[in-house]
Write a structure and sequence with these properties.
single chain, alpha/beta, 8-stranded parallel sheet, 40% helix, globular
Length: 363
């Protein structure tokens, strides 16, 4: 199977999804760049696009090479309430970096906004919409391909975000950082999805806070809710790259390991093959990742769904399918691992004999 896609005019996000095409999102920026020394934990703001543009460009390139069809602007928490006078320069620089890298492949640029720090304390719709509108003005000026409202704990605020983004006339995706229990006020996933579609979102789903299995369960509930309401939308999932079955309603941020001790929970590439296949079978066609989701995880999505997409990503040139490159190893017991059945059935050890398998959330 070829490792490249034939060149041609780029189709828009809805044109791709309407035709049944699989769209592969990108992955972790904040947590990955924090580990690399370019983002400070806490507010998790993206000054790196201005201070260290090469670091951000490199990560975009890694995701593109791994198979991502979308370069999302690194604008998480880049609203004026979080960044004061820096917000406009950061949003503009993030757009420029994403567009530069997207131009090197068959990728679209998505301008991204997220929940505000203001909402929990001052539910002032006009003030919050003003913050969203400021970012939207930059995205419109930079002519991004579509828009994403992501990482919302409350559907009310997510609806406000969609309403603002729709003013651009561009396609809008909306994802919430919720699990099967629904948003932080108890609004169920199906109802959340219905409200987002009624507000104007063409693509709905979840991102962050929960691992692959839990995220897919939440999307399934969203799909059921849309069906019950007689509504249609494309489905999207961008889960954590961590296993978090012990999360409470707030997700991984409530686990005692967050954010600096999560490495033992990292999903294997084979876990992500399973995630991609289950998402596809559920009817999800926009599949990506969020915190902890590294480029090799994105490659796993692209490789698992290569039969449906018709091609492999460039990064597969250095990766044998299901460990097939191990056939070249000198040790016979390692050569024996060059098969799908071995990796699909492996129960990986953590190497930590005194550590528990699960934790108790702090909240």
């Amino acid at each position: 199977m070829a490792s490249t896609r034939a060149p041609g005019a780029k189709k828009g996000i809805l044109e791709r999804l309407d035709s049944g095409e699989v769209v592969i999102g990108d992955g972790s920026f904040l947590i990955t760049l924090e580990k690399r020394g370019y983002v400070k934990a806490g507010l998790w703001t993206p000054e790196a696009v201005v201070e260290h543009p090469n670091a951000v460009r490199q990560l975009h390139m890694e995701f593109l090479r791994a198979g991502s069809n979308v370069m999302q602007t690194f604008t998480f928490s880049a609203s004026e309430d979080n960044m004061e006078s820096q917000w406009e320069d950061v949003n503009a620089a993030a757009c420029d970096l994403a567009k530069e890298v997207a131009g090197k492949g068959d990728a679209l640029v998505a301008g991204g906004i997220c929940q505000t720090s203001m909402y929990k304390y001052h539910k002032d719709e006009a003030r919050i919409k003003k913050l969203f509108r400021q970012q939207l003005e930059v995205f419109t000026r930079k002519n991004v391909d579509f828009l994403i409202a992501e990482y919302f704990e409350y559907v009310e605020e997510a609806v406000w975000a969609v309403e603002v983004l729709k003013e651009s006339g561009k396609p809008v995706a909306a994802t919430m950082c919720i699990g099967p229990a629904g948003d932080m006020r108890g609004v169920r996933p199906g109802e959340c999805a219905a409200r987002l579609v009624k507000a104007g979102a063409s693509i709905v789903g979840v991102n962050c806070r929960f691992g692959p299995g839990t995220s897919l369960k939440t999307v399934e509930l969203m799909k059921e809710g849309l069906g019950a309401a007689g509504l249609k939308a494309h489905l999207m999932v961008q889960s954590l790259g961590f296993h978090t079955p012990d999360c409470g309603k707030g997700g991984f941020v409530d686990l005692p390991e967050y954010p600096f001790g999560l490495e033992p929970r990292v999903a294997t590439r084979w876990d992500i093959h399973k995630y991609a296949r289950e998402a596809y079978n559920l009817g999800v066609r926009y599949i990506g990742g969020c915190c902890g989701f590294e480029p090799y995880h994105i490659r796993a999505i692209a490789e698992e769904l290569a039969p449906e997409r018709g091609f492999l990503p460039l990064a597969s040139e250095k990766h044998g399918s299901w460990g097939s490159s191990l056939n070249m190893h000198t040790k016979p017991w390692i050569r024996a691992r060059a098969r799908r059945e071995y990796w699909e059935n492996l129960l990986p050890a953590s190497g930590r004999p005194f550590c528990p398998s699960l934790s108790k959330p702090d909240v």
